[in-house]
Design a protein that fits this description.
This protein is α+β, with helices and mostly antiparallel strands. 40% of the residues lie in helices and 13% in strands. The chain folds into three domains: 131 residues, no CATH class; 307 residues, no CATH class; 172 residues, Jelly Rolls (Sandwich), CATH 2.60.120.1690.
C-alpha cells in the first residue's frame, strides 16, 4: 500500500487503468468498476465474464442454484440461512408425505417458497423502505387471479385429464388444457407486475421487476395449490394415498411449480423493468434481456409442462420432467439476469469509498465492485446507504483483518486517483470487515419464528377445515338394504329417467373383436378399435363418461385387470370403496371406485369419481370405466336416491349405468 494520500480524506491514492472493454479509466483491480469486465482476462469472454455471476461473483453464470437464482439481492453471508430454510422445507415435505397428514402437507406445499420469498423481501427491502404496498399488491392480486383461474381453467384441465379410451394429446380438449390454460395462466401471473410497474415512481432497476414478477407468481401458485389440494381435506386428517403419490403431489405443487412460475415471471419482470445503461459495453447478448425473449421462454416451459401433466405419465417420470424444466429455467434466467446487470450499468465515475456487501473490502462506489465484481444493483438499496464510509469516523486497524486502514474519510468525496501508469500508487483494496455492518436485516431466530408461525397458522386453519369438511360415519344399514343399485334382468325394457324419454331398447354397438354394447339415446359417442366411449351431459352433476374396453384376457383375472387399468390411468390413487360382486353383462367381476384429483400445471378445482370394473368370460376381458364429478353424499333426500343405499358418487351410476352395463355382450 502506498503512503500517497489526499489531504481532505486522507485516503491512499488509487492506481488506475483504462478498461479495454469499455474504454473508461477505472481503478487498477481485478474487475472494471464501470462495465464489470474481468481485467485479468482479455477478449470477449472477459467482458461477458460467464465465470463470474454478476449478483454472486463466486459462482459461474451456468450453475443450478435455487437460492442464488431466486434471491439475487442477498449478500454473500446471508445465503446460508435461506439454504437451510429451503432444505428444512424439503425435509418437512418428505416427513409429512410419509405420514400422509393432509393439512400439514397442504400448508407446507402452499407456503414454503412464498414464505421464504417474503422473508427475503423483508430482509433486503428492494423497494427502499416502502416494500409493503407493492409486495402485498402483487401477492394479493396474484392470489386472486390464481384462485379465479383455477376455477375457470381447471374445468378444461379436468376434462382433458378424465380417463378415456379415446383420449389423445392432439384432441381438442388436450390442446385447450395443455396450451391455452397454462399460457393464459402465465399471462395472468404477469398482471400484478405490470400494475406495480405503472404505479412505481422514481428510479427503476431490473431486479425490482424480478421481485415484483416473482411475488405475483407466488401469490398465484399459493392460491392454486390450496385450491387444488383442498379436496384432501374432505377425507379427514389423512390423505389415504401412497407415499409416492403424496411425494409427487407435494414436489410438483410445493417445489417445482412455484419455483418455475416465480423464476419465469421474475425473468419477464426483470426484462420489462430493464433499462440499458448510457454507455455501450463490449458484452454481447442484449437480446437475452428482451421481454419477448423472456415471455417466449416462460410460455414454452409452461406449455411443455401442460402436455406433460395430461400425458398420464408415471409419477417418477413426471417428477423428472418437472425437475428438468426447473433446471433449464434456472440456467436461462441466470444468463438473462447476468446480461441485464452488465448492460444496466450507468455509473462510470469513481465514487466515494464504501464497504462492498459481497467481499467486505473498502472500495470506491461504482457500478461494479473493483475487487470482487459484484454488480452494485444486485445489492439492496439500504445496504448501499449503510455501506458508505462514515463522515469523520476514525477506523482503527482490526487485528483480524490484515491490511485494514486508519482513515478519516469524507463520505461524499470521490476516492483520489492517479492517472494511468503513475508509479508507486496503491494497488488493491483494504479489508473493512470490522465496519462492514450486518449481512442481514433479520436475526436467525426471527426468521425461524416467522417460518414456524406462518406454517403453524395455515396448518391449524386447514386442520379446522378438515374437521368441518369430513363427512360423519355412514348410518348403520339394516340387513338386505345395503346392496348396490339393482342390476335388472336380461331383455327387460328401459325407461330413460335422465332425459324423460319413453321406454326404448337403445342403440347397438358392435366391436370388431366381437363384443357388443347397447346404450340409451342422448350420448356423444367416440370409438376406437378397442371399445366405445359414451358421454351424457346431465343437468345435475354435469357430464359423465362411460368407456367399455374389450380384449383377450391372456390369463388376467378381473381384479388384476382393474388394478392394471387403474394404475396406468391414474397412478397412485387409492380405492375409496370396492364394488360388492359387480356384474358385467351378467358375468361376475371385480370393481373399485376412486376419487381422483388430477395434477396439472394450471391448477384444478374438481374431484372426480372413477368406477372401474372388469369381468372375464370365454378368455375375453371387458373393462368398464364410469367417470364423473364427485357428488355430495347421496342420502334419502337426494334426487339421486332410488331406494337402494349405495356408496356410488357419480350421476351415471344412478341413471344410465345399469342399462348399459347389463346389456354388454361377450364374444
Amino acid at each position: 500500500m502506498s503512503d500517497m494520500t489526499s489531504s481532505p480524506a486522507d485516503l491512499p491514492v488509487l492506481a488506475t487503468v483504462e478498461c479495454p472493454s469499455c474504454g473508461v479509466v477505472v481503478p487498477d483491480a481485478r474487475f472494471c468498476g464501470a462495465c464489470g469486465a474481468d481485467l485479468v482476462h482479455r477478449g470477449v469472454m472477459a467482458s461477458q465474464r460467464l465465470h463470474c455471476y454478476a449478483p454472486f461473483p463466486d459462482e459461474p453464470v451456468v450453475r443450478v442454484s435455487v437460492v442464488t437464482s431466486l434471491f439475487p439481492h442477498l449478500s454473500h453471508r446471508a445465503k446460508a440461512p435461506f439454504r437451510i430454510g429451503f432444505g428444512f422445507f424439503l425435509v418437512l415435505l418428505l416427513v409429512f408425505s410419509a405420514a400422509g397428514t393432509s393439512a400439514p402437507l397442504i400448508a407446507v406445499s402452499a407456503l414454503s417458497v412464498p414464505l421464504l420469498f417474503l422473508i427475503y423481501i423483508w430482509e433486503v427491502d428492494p423497494y427502499e423502505g416502502s416494500f409493503l404496498p407493492p409486495t402485498f399488491l402483487c401477492l394479493l392480486l396474484g392470489a386472486g387471479l390464481g384462485a379465479g383461474w383455477a376455477i375457470v381453467g381447471g374445468s378444461y384441465v379436468d376434462k382433458a385429464l378424465a380417463p378415456s379410451l379415446t383420449s389423445s394429446l392432439t384432441s381438442n380438449a388436450s390442446i385447450v388444457a395443455a396450451i391455452a390454460v397454462p399460457a393464459i395462466g402465465q399471462l395472468l401471473m404477469s398482471v400484478p407486475m405490470v400494475i406495480v410497474r405503472r404505479l412505481q415512481r422514481g428510479p427503476i432497476e431490473a431486479l425490482d421487476g424480478f421481485v415484483a414478477g416473482a411475488t405475483g407468481a407466488l401469490g398465484f401458485t399459493l392460491a392454486a395449490t390450496i385450491d387444488l389440494m383442498s379436496p384432501w381435506l374432505s377425507n379427514g386428517q389423512l390423505t389415504h394415498a401412497s407415499f409416492l403419490a403424496n411425494v409427487t403431489q407435494v414436489i410438483l405443487r410445493g417445489v417445482t411449480l412455484p419455483l418455475i412460475s416465480a423464476l419465469a415471471t421474475g425473468f419477464i419482470g426483470m426484462s420489462y423493468w430493464n433499462k440499458l445503461g448510457s454507455r455501450p459495453t463490449a458484452a454481447k447478448g442484449r437480446w437475452l434481456t428482451s421481454p419477448l425473449c423472456a415471455l417466449g421462454l416462460a410460455l414454452l416451459v409452461q406449455v411443455g409442462l401442460g402436455f406433460t401433466d395430461i400425458a398420464a405419465l408415471s409419477d417418477a417420470v413426471l417428477i423428472g420432467i418437472h425437475v428438468a424444466a426447473l433446471v433449464v429455467l434456472i440456467v436461462a434466467m441466470r444468463v438473462g439476469l447476468h446480461y441485464a446487470l452488465l448492460h444496466e450499468a450507468v455509473d462510470v465515475r469513481i465514487g466515494p469509498p464504501r464497504v462492498c456487501a459481497n467481499c467486505s473490502h473498502l472500495v470506491p462506489a461504482m457500478a461494479f465492485c473493483p475487487q470482487c465484481g459484484v454488480a452494485e444493483r444486485a445489492t439492496s438499496r439500504p445496504h448501499r446507504r449503510r455501506a458508505t464510509w462514515p463522515r469523520s469516523q476514525g477506523v482503527t486497524s482490526d487485528p483480524r483483518t490484515q491490511g485494514a486502514i486508519t482513515v478519516d474519510a469524507v463520505a461524499d468525496a470521490p476516492w483520489p486517483t492517479a492517472p494511468p501508469g503513475t508509479p508507486g500508487v496503491m494497488v488493491g483494496f483494504p479489508g473493512a470487515h470490522a465496519v462492514a455492518g450486518p449481512s442481514h436485516g433479520l436475526s436467525h431466530p426471527v426468521k425461524v419464528l416467522l417460518v414456524l408461525a406462518g406454517l403453524g397458522l395455515l396448518t391449524l386453519t386447514l386442520v379446522v377445515v378438515a374437521l368441518v369438511a369430513t363427512p360423519g360415519p355412514p348410518p348403520p344399514c339394516k340387513p338386505l338394504q345395503c346392496q348396490g343399485p339393482p342390476i335388472g334382468h336380461p331383455g327387460e325394457s328401459f325407461t330413460d329417467v335422465a332425459h324423460g324419454a319413453p321406454e326404448v331398447d337403445g342403440s347397438l354397438y358392435r366391436n370388431a373383436k366381437g363384443f357388443t354394447v347397447r346404450y340409451p339415446p342422448g350420448a356423444t359417442i367416440g370409438t376406437d378399435p378397442d371399445g366405445i366411449e359414451l358421454t351424457y351431459d346431465y343437468t345435475n352433476g354435469g357430464p359423465s363418461h362411460i368407456e367399455i374396453l374389450g380384449t383377450k384376457a391372456s390369463g388376467a383375472t378381473p381384479q388384476t385387470a382393474v388394478e392394471q387399468f387403474a394404475g396406468n390411468e391414474f397412478p397412485g390413487a387409492q380405492a375409496v370403496y370396492q364394488l360388492t360382486d359387480p356384474f358385467i353383462g351378467y358375468q361376475p367381476g371385480y370393481g373399485e371406485a376412486f376419487d381422483v384429483q388430477p395434477a396439472s400445471a394450471a391448477g384444478s378445482t374438481g374431484t372426480d369419481q372413477v368406477v372401474v370394473a372388469a369381468a372375464v368370460h370365454n378368455g375375453f376381458v371387458i373393462i368398464v370405466q364410469v367417470e364423473g364429478s364427485l357428488l355430495p353424499t347421496v342420502t334419502a333426500n337426494s334426487m339421486y336416491f332410488d331406494g337402494h343405499p349405495s356408496p356410488a358418487g357419480t350421476n351415471l351410476a344412478y341413471f344410465d349405468g345399469d342399462f348399459i352395463i347389463n346389456r354388454i355382450g361377450f364374444p
